[in-house]
Specification:
By secondary structure, the protein is an all-alpha fold. It is 79% helix and 0% strand. The chain has twelve helices and no strands. The C terminus is likely disordered.
Length: 312
């Protein structure tokens, strides 16, 4: 029984990594039919509807008061509001594969914030590998920008906003999961996301004069909407929050390595996106840096009683 419980954080981590890895591809497809705010608003609208349905049939338990919403609100501001604004516009102006590469930086930022706010230790080897990861990002950014693709610079800035927001989320999750369940935190995140992005989307549609729900008539958008609204918004966030309640903040984000690999493969195989040599080299640097930072963290620090070591 103890072995099964110890394995669950691994399985949930791999699960949310696979779903998030494919979410970049589905977002790229959906953005052909909808604006960024429109896509995210409809996505979270579906997520809230599904969660309320599950709650009505008592499949899940959500017991939150107004003060609980206020307690979780700072986390929801960073994830999903700032994160999805950054990710969606980042994907729109770059590519699914490049977005996945940048998301692998999340563990590096998480380690830095965890060091500052949670007092999780960083040693010299971790710092070295963090620099290696940053070198990979600089390589990809400089080489991509030199290609002269329109809007690429702003796309990279939005992706960096998403990375920083996800890192703050990981740190806040570590604290909030001591008080609230993973599904309660996920519910507040989805409600805040639905309110914020639908208001922005409806304003945008009224100004520009397009039908807000028109994309739902398109089959490719519909499938992407279902994947993003149910699997990526509810299942993946639940799994990520559960994993975050069992491991340290920096360890939780280690699974971003797998997200990157899946995002690159999905973009290249299904969307026929070009994968360049500098993207491959940059990806190797980023992933090697993230792996090293977490590996030496495991060597230098004993996990707490409620943590499961991801790297031995």
């Amino acid at each position: 029984m103890n072995n099964k419980r110890a394995l669950l954080p691994y399985l949930s981590g791999v699960g949310f990594a696979i779903i998030f890895g494919f979410s970049f591809m589905f977002s790229r497809v959906a953005l052909r039919y909808a604006s960024a705010m429109q896509l995210v608003g409809l996505r979270f609208m579906l997520a809230v509807a599904v969660l309320l349905l599950l709650k009505t049939f008592k499949i899940i338990k959500i017991n939150l008061r107004l003060k609980d919403f206020w307690a979780i609100l700072p986390l929801a501001f960073f994830q999903p509001v700032l994160y999805f604004a950054g990710e969606t516009y980042g994907i729109k102006h770059t590519s699914a594969s490049m977005s996945g590469i940048f998301m692998s930086l999340i563990p590096v930022f998480t380690a830095g914030l965890a060091y500052i706010f949670l007092k999780e230790k960083l040693n010299r080897m971790q710092m070295l590998f963090i620099v290696i990861s940053l070198a990979g990002v600089v390589l990809i950014s400089v080489m991509s920008l030199s290609g002269g693709q329109a809007g690429l610079g702003i796309g990279i800035l939005f992706l960096m906003l998403a990375v920083l927001s996800a890192a703050v989320y990981a740190v806040l999750t570590r604290k909030l999961t001591k008080t609230y369940s993973a599904i309660e935190i996920t519910f507040v995140m989805m409600v805040v996301g639905a309110l914020a992005f639908n208001v922005l989307g409806l304003i945008d549609s009224s100004v520009k004069g397009y039908a807000y729900f028109a994309p739902l008539k398109e089959t490719p958008f519909l499938w992407s909407w279902l994947f993003l609204g149910v699997l990526s918004s509810i299942v993946a966030f639940f799994l990520m929050t559960y994993t975050g309640s069992k491991v340290s903040a920096s360890q939780n984000m280690l699974f971003a390595n797998l997200v990157t690999v899946i995002a690159i493969l999905a973009g290249g195989i299904f969307l026929k996106e070009k994968i360049t040599l500098y993207q491959i080299i940059g990806s190797v640097l980023i992933i090697a840096g993230v792996w090293g930072a977490n590996y030496f963290a495991a060597d230098s620090d004993e996990p707490a009683k409620d943590e499961v070591p991801i790297v031995n």
